[in-house]
Amino acid sequence: MKRVLSGIQPTADSFHLGNYLGAIRQWVELQDSHDAFYCVVDLHALTVEVDPKVLRERTLVSVAQLVALGLDPDRCTIFVQSQVAQHNQLGWVMECLAGFGEASRMTQFKDKSQKAGADRTTVGLFTYPLLQAADILLYGADLVPVGEDQRQHIELTRDLGIRFNSRYGETLVIPEAKIIKAGAKINDLQDPSAKMSKSAASQSGVIDILDEPSVNIKKIKSAVTDMGKEIRFDEKEKPGISNLLTILSHLSGTSITQLEGEFEGSGYGDFKMAVANTVADYFAPIRARTQGLLSERSELHAIIDNGAKKAEEVASDTLARVYEKMGLLPRNG
């Protein structure tokens, strides 16, 4: 079986609908056909200031949600990045391989640093892609499922892996990016031209999985729509309705063409209510499962501990081979 690896940051109290449809649902599918490793990347969350208690709780909530959303610890490896020390160790190797210029060209770093300013931009934000490369290369991942916005980071990972192998001999598996299909892209309910994101100026357009159903129903009923009354998919002329059709199609399993026929002649109010009820019903058992794991945490901690052990076995083997090739002295005993 080919190995797949991906990760998600614990930077919010809940994953949102875009996280699920854009990434996590594909992770669930891949665990049946691949040797799958999925990581809550808490070290990456340190590039911005965060309260320690909040980070710790969000990390636990993230793992609980991944399990509730369908990741099975018996069919994949779920682990927390900071519990596997080899990430930092290979991260330093990547920093020593990468050129300052190529790291400076990372689009996300340029965008975020320009917004924050030089004095508020951490060195960790600059080296983020190099730790991400270590995350991937440690596990010999063949495939890395990511959105289009992460393609550049995967290309850097490939370049660094190839550079290491060229310099020290074949050691690291060179991964391929598995770009998640654009059809799963979910946009903000209040600004359907923008991707749904926790960093949005307003959270009124973000559907959080763990929110009370009434909260998400209200958000969907208040979603921005378009001129006219026709319910049809047209991302250019009707981005708001198209976004809601995409959401309903993915969660109901009904094609957009069928939905257009089903709601022909219906008003926007009835259509929004159908979307809202579908979202509420879909995530109700997931929310309950997450709360159950968090209320009695022994199962959750066992999943995390077992995942760390499985991940460390693979990571330590890779790091040992890397260190040997580079001439670093091994410990005796």
Structure commentary:
The two termini are 34 Å apart. The model has no long low-confidence stretch (mean pLDDT 93). The protein has helices at 17-30, 52-68, 86-97, 100-104, 107-116, 123-137, 151-168, 213-221, 239-252, 256-262, 268-295, 298-326, and strands at 3-8, 35-40, 76-80, 143-146, 176-179. α1 (17-30) links the parallel β1 and β2 (35-40). It is mainly alpha-helical and 333 residues long. The longest helix is centred in the C-terminal third of the chain and has 29 residues, at 298-326. 53% of the residues lie in helices and 8% in strands. The strands form 2 sheets. The protein has a 3-stranded parallel β-sheet with strand order 1-2-3. It has a two-stranded parallel sheet with strand order 4-5. α3 crosses α6 and α3 runs parallel beside α12 (298-326).
Overview features:
333 residues, mainly alpha
How much helix, percentage-wise, in residues? 40-55%
Order of helices and strands: EHEHEHHHHEHEHHHHH
Low confidence ranges: none
Main sheet makeup: 3 strands, parallel
Structural class: mainly alpha
State the end-to-end CA separation. Answer: 34 Å
- 3D shape: globular
* Major sheet strand order: 1-2-3
Cα-atom radius of gyration: 21 Å
Helix tally equals 12
Mean pLDDT: 93
Beta-strand percentage range = 5-15%
Number of strands: 5
Task: Give the SSE map.
Layout lengths: L2 E6 L8 H14 L4 E6 L11 H17 L7 E5 L5 H12 L2 H5 L2 H10 L6 H15 L5 E4 L4 H18 L7 E4 L33 H9 L17 H14 L3 H7 L5 H28 L2 H29 L7
Parallel strand pairs: 1-2, 2-3, 4-5
